[in-house]
Request: fold
Amino acid sequence: MLHSNQPAPDFSVLNQHQQTVTLSDFIGHKNVVLYFYPKDDTPGCTIEANEFTQMANEFATADTVVLGVSKDSCASHQTFIDKFSLQVELLADTSGELCEAYAVWQEKERNGVKKMGIVRSTFIIDKQGMLAYAEYGVSPEGHAAAILEKVKTL
Reply:
């Protein structure tokens, strides 16, 4: 698992518009909140995306871009954004490479059944490309506000 004060793993992934987004797009001028979630349009993921959307202007004021990541397709992301008027960019890690790089693809157990899945996790990457914060096993409610407070200290 990743920890603070180490270089953030680089990435190059398509967003909901099928445009490539890379970490290097932001180095030197924006902090990045990279949050991983299991699936578009599911209860916890919707809460989290809506809370980040409600605070989008505050993150922008703090020179921070918010990027959500799941293994859903670009089209699924666009449908999710449209349905809830989300103001966050969503990255389609359909290959799972980004999930592997950030160690969020893990074995999970539910009702006694073990299977691989995305562990809800959030990373704050500073303008120099270093991990300023890493959290695995995030609870969606109130999470965006807690992350905003951490971003404000950068």
Summary: The two ends are 22 Å apart (CA to CA). The mean pLDDT is 96. The first strand starts at residue 12 and ends at 15.
